[in-house]
Amino acid sequence: MGGDRLAFVAAGFGIKHALYAIDGEVKAMGTQAGGTPLSVGVEVPDTLDRTTHFVLGLEDMAVATSGDYRHFVEVKGTRLSHTIDPRRGAPLVNAPASVMRLGKNLYASRRNGDGTHGHGAIGRSHICIEKRDKCLVLDA
């Protein structure tokens, strides 16, 4: 993933503490100068209002997000996600607004992230752990 590559190149230049973000993917290297985790704001999944839902502290971790609260289309009153449902080969219908996966790197974080959407609406704000993957699912 791009953030992992940025972190790798930066480490080659001796950079040990940084935060890299590329469109829904964030890679944290090290901590802030005082030793506290690097802070990442997680938005409320709302198409109109960009407010912070909570702040996540990251230290040598990566977060990959996917969702339809910014990227979707309405067809005949049905909201279709930009994420494809592999079971149907068509856009997801009524997908969670946002799915966030945490891992040691972006590849590990992303590997199952988009697949979580296909499980339908899971609830308002649930943290789930499956097969050692940490996942946050937010419905609008």
What does this protein look like?
The protein has 140 residues and is mainly β. It has two helices and eleven strands, in the order αβββββββββαββ. The strands form three sheets. The chain has a six-stranded antiparallel beta sheet. A hairpin with a 2-residue loop joins strand 10 and strand 11. About 15% of the residues have low confidence.
In short:
With 140 residues, this protein is mostly beta strands. It contains 2 helices and 11 strands.
Describe the secondary structure blueprint for this structure.
Elements: H1 2-12, E1 18-22, E2 25-29, E3 38-43, E4 52-58, E5 62-67, E6 72-75, E7 78-85, E8 90-93, E9 98-103, H2 106-110, E10 125-130, E11 133-138
Antiparallel strand pairs: 1-2, 2-5, 3-4, 5-9, 6-7, 7-8, 9-11, 10-11
List keywords for this structure.
single chain; mainly beta; T-fold; 6-stranded antiparallel sheet; 3-stranded antiparallel sheet; 11 strands
Which consecutive residue ranges, at least 5 long each, have pLDDT under 50?
112-132
Cα separation of the termini: 27 Å
Instruction: Work out the count of structural domains.
Output: 1
Give the strand line-up of the largest sheet. Answer: 1-2-5-9-11-10
Q: What's the CATH topology name? A: T-fold
Helix content: 10-25%
Secondary-structure element order, as H and E? HEEEEEEEEEHEE
Largest sheet features? 6 strands, antiparallel
**Strand composition percent:** over 45%
Number of strands: 11
Main structural class: mainly beta
Instruction: Please state the overall shape, judged from the principal axes of the Cα atoms.
Output: elongated
The DSSP helix count reads: 2
Mean pLDDT: 75
